[in-house]
Amino acid sequence: MIKKEMIAMLLAGGQGSRLGVLTAKVAKPAVAFGGKYRIIDFPLSNCINSGIDTVGVLTQYQPLRLNTHIGIGMPWDLDRNNGGVTVLPPYEKSTSSEWYTGTANAIYQNLDYIETYNPDYVLILSGDHIYKMDYEVMLDFHKENNADVTIAAMPVPIEEASRFGVVITDDNSRITEFEEKPEHPRSNLASMGIYIFSWPILRNALVEMSDQQNCDFGKHVIPYCHGNGNRIFAYEYNGYWKDVGTLGSYWEANMELIDIIPEFNLYEEFWKIYTKSDAVPPQYISADSRIERSIISGGSEIYGEVYNSVIGSGVTIGEGTVVRDSIVMKNTVIGARCTINKAIIAEEVEVSDGVVMGEGEEVPNKAQPKIYSFGLVTVGEDSYIPPNVWIGKNTAISGNTTPEDYSGGALKSGESIIKAGDRG
Predict the structure, then answer these.
(1) Are 142 and 230 contacting, i.e. CB atoms less than 8 angstroms apart?
(2) Coil, strand, or helix at residue 303?
(3) Separation of alpha carbons 339 and 87, rounded Å
(4) Cα dihedral 264/269/271/276 (nearest 10)
(5) What does DSSP say about strands 395-398 and 377-379: parallel, antiparallel, or unpaired?
(6) SS3 readout for 346-397
């Protein structure tokens, strides 16, 4: 086995429960983004664009779609005999069968995989962020500072800093203190959950912390390294970075792709985002349709009007239907004469004729006010919505619904319909 200078370990096992019905049947990194991509395409593309050709992808929750999408890594040029991409689910050991219980525990259970390549450095990544970053530049920074651990950090507004792990640095960018989600932050440099470790330091920390319940990088491994006097530095990143962990941030990040001057540009030649593309026919736009400022993916048929929206591949939008400020994912069919406002509609959904979505007053969702907010309508995968029903704001629908599910033909703002077997 050829020794690698740096390999990446990509944590993609998360359930993404704050995305509600969008992740009832699929892991968060496999959720569609920007019409033709999936969230995991961004860190994978960053790896190959940064010259990293060995990536371990740690999966756990609902891994099927993710595994199928990654395959042998061909779209990212990661189908290699030596290195390439390897999917690493939890597996039965001779003495026990263990799920991954925390971010660091997942890496600890795969020490043998890392050992095979005996790298000098290990890059730890999350599978659920949208950004472009050259990890090679971060590695150069790590080497220049003779660091044991380098944490990518970005400035955030001080009033938002309490949502993040915050780092406090000296004049040389060396980290002197950490605060995990502090009430009164003393710095606005937030950890991005992207780490470079010198391999011996990481191996030692993981072995030492292996008894820790739900062993996690932010809570356990980094403080352990800090307490042991390791040299820990903050690499400041000032580009676009979005944690799409909530329905609001997920919707916003998609909408930012269609700005006149997009904050995040998918069309750059020198830093391409790669994905597994289905063989689909071209899009069809009818003579009566109207489209403004939207992304329309291949294989879609548009007979109605689409404004300021992101439409996935193989989507049909019927005659007389108006879609605004919405995300419609792959192979979904929206019937005729519908009005769709500020909705996120997952894959393989059928919306019957005459449905109105996203109208009415803005009231909090009764069951899950923290998840179904932002004035959105969220429809889970494989759902069916019967004809001529009216659906309010901050609502969630999942499953094969019938007219009887809609009291008086309506789902009022703040209400949910989650059919048995689906989870909200």
Answers:
(1) no
(2) coil
(3) 41
(4) 90
(5) parallel
(6) CCCCEECCCCEECCCCCCCCCCCCCCCCCCCEEECCCCEECCCCEECCCEEE
Give which of 335, 326, 133 is closest to 239, Cα–Cα: 133
**CA dist., res. 48 & res. 67, Å (int):** 18
Q: Encode the chain (424 residues) as per-residue pLDDT tens digits.
A: 678 899 999 988 766 678 888 888 888 888 999 998 989 999 999 999 999 989 998 887 766 677 777 776 776 767 766 777 887 877 555 445 556 667 888 898 899 999 999 999 999 998 889 999 999 999 999 999 999 999 999 998 888 888 888 999 999 999 998 887 888 888 999 999 899 999 999 999 999 988 877 788 888 899 899 999 999 999 999 999 988 888 999 999 999 999 877 778 877 777 888 888 777 899 999 999 999 999 999 999 999 999 999 999 999 999 999 999 999 999 999 999 999 999 999 999 999 999 999 999 999 999 999 999 999 999 999 999 999 999 999 999 999 999 999 999 999 999 999 986 554 4
What are the helix and strand counts (H, E) for the chain?
8, 33
Q: Is 33 helix (H, G, I), strand (E, B) or coil?
A: strand
Tokens of 117: 């390549």
The answer to whether the CB of 288 falls within 8 A of the CB of 272 is no
353's tokens = 């004729």
Look at the chain and count its residues.
Answer: 424
Q: Across-strand partners of 233?
A: 150, 174
Find out whether 202 and 150 touch, Cβ atoms under 8 Å: no
